[in-house]
């Protein structure tokens, strides 16, 4: 990010850059729109180039699992699609192996969706935590929440998994129903900089109340300064507030992603985002330079998800579903980030 600030002085020399995405230092939230315009004219391109540098080069010397062993914790009898969309998105974004830890009644259903995923139907079982403890040290990143449901016993186990993942220093994405648990107890993620929260408008409103003890109405047009304030109060945990423009902040820097996306708001798009984020988060924190950050990983995933939505909607229109968007992960990823990383 220091390089980004140094490069911002060169913005007048840059041409042909889409200004729909920009990075704004947290301390500059109140600066004039002219300053935002100057930063935006450079930063979208710089962010995309930085995100491209996160992607590991594919070579024949890589071993299975090196590019990512990701686990999704979620899935109950009512919600089986969400963990599938998250897991398959992590896999298609470039993770090598993806596990789903779900409730027993969801296991057979999720297994039927794809032979590519490793399904553990143990999340609500008496021996579940012991089985999870065996697998956690083998993982690179965990995603908590898609299709988890609100069963208190399962949410309690999720909290245990989160604590165990923190003890292993694993990157963590907290999404969907896992955010409900975090909003009940923000200490679960307080001060853990390898965590990324992905709230929508309602979930962020609850987060503000839990962390800042203020009532803020849900808004699809996030306030960057408020997102930054909550992130800082949580000890510089990264927050990706989904909205008309995705606002991402760790309390120090704030990034906005405003690429077109899809105007069709079908369910599952957040799962695509969360799953791909888990893969990018592993690459950023476990495989890249020390300067790589959860902030950059979150921006990369947000940009990918919006690109998939835009391209799928352009082809299918109102009939578009998340399945259509998942099918576009490869071409959109290739256009945005592949470059020299492929053979």
Question: What features would you describe in this structure?
Answer:
- With 343 residues, the chain is of the alpha/beta class.
- The chain has one domain: UDP-N-acetylmuramoyl-L-alanine:D-glutamate ligase (3-Layer(aba) Sandwich).
- Helices cover 47% and strands 12% of the residues.
- It has helices at 2-7, 33-54, 81-93, 104-113, 128-135, 152-167, 176-184, 201-212, 224-233, 269-286, 294-316, 322-326, 329-338; strands at 21-25, 69-73, 97-101, 118-120, 141-144, 172-174, 195-197, 238-241, 246-249, 253-257.
- The protein has a ten-stranded mixed sheet, sandwiched between helices.
- A hairpin with a 4-residue loop joins strand 8 (238-241) and strand 9 (246-249).
- Helix 7 (176-184) runs parallel beside helix 8 (201-212) and helix 10 packs antiparallel against helix 11 (294-316).
- The chain is globular.
- The protein starts with a helix and ends in a 5-residue tail after the last helix.
